[in-house]
Amino acid sequence: MMKKLTIIISFFAVLLAAIVTVVYLDTNTYKVHTVHFQTDKLPRHTKLRIVQISDLHDKVFDEGNESLVNSILEQNADLIVLTGDLIDRKTNDFTNVFAMIESITSHHDHVYYVSGNHEWWNRGTEHFFDGLRERNVTILNNRHTHISLNDATVNLVGVDDASTGHEDIRAAFHGINQDDYTIFLSHTPSIVDSYEELPADLILSGHTHGGQVRVPFIGAIVAPDQGFLPKLDKGVFQIHDNQYLYIDSGLGTSVLPLRFMNKSQFSVIEVESVRTDRDQR
Asked: Any bridge partners for residue 181, and if so which?
């Protein structure tokens, strides 16, 4: 009897140690996740490379986030997009985030940002926005810009956080040329449920943290705006023909300072031109 009890206790001790190890690694180390899309709206043989950073929540992985910044810059991206919640609602010192952003913008000219709910919940909202502008980040607050990259013209559209009611879709998309490839930045992915017709080819979001805690064969347990067992948790979703939503699960944490089966990450999005019948005629 004692032998069986010892075996059972040992088993659960090993299981607990394994879970603690996974939680620590998933929460405190990060990976680079790459996804690929194709379009006939880019000139032939053209490829766009985008780094997406989301939901940092003032997380610091090492001294000054130096290795994280280096990993981001090593991707040689055409664009770097920040899809909200760089800070937490409780963040009262923006030093860490500003230092990281300054390290990025000192080496990269195309850095764009849309706000998340935690920026709007923070007492220093406007101070934070001003700090991003001072560090050469372009804030797409319900507006868009045209970018010429690799012989292609791309629309980059952004809205302020929709989960807190700050979005203005009409203003953001006003006047865009839909013949050009259009990338839409929205912190919350639930915007695709609120607005059925979004004139964008690719929607990049965050907000969900991929559920933060995931269970094998089930996925995310809970996500903001969606409740339990969310449909839009992380990864790629086809919304309409030739329209895709990509949800990055982010780098930081909120509410509970842990991740499980859902490693911290930033994403590299590659968009490549594809030949069509029209091209071949």
From this structure: 154
Cα gap 257→234, rounded to integer Å: 19
Q: Assess contact for 244 and 37: CB atoms under 8 A.
A: yes
Q: pLDDT per residue over 232-247, tens digit each?
A: 999 999 999 999 999 9
The DSSP secondary-structure symbol of 126 reads H
Please state the rounded mean pLDDT for residues 38-63: 95
What dotted CATH number matches 2-280? 3.60.21.10
- How far is it, in rounded angstroms, from Cα 104 to Cα 98? 10
Extract the tokens encoding 9: 């206790």
Please answer whether residues 135 and 105 qualify as being in contact, where contact means their C-beta atoms are separated by less than 8 angstroms: yes
Overall pTM > 0.90: yes
**Number of alpha carbons in the 13 Å side-chain half-sphere of residue 118:** 23
Amino acid of residue 6: T
Structure tokens given for 115: 């706000």
Run of H or E residues at 238? strand 235-240
Domain ranges of the chain: 2-280
112 beta partners:
81, 138
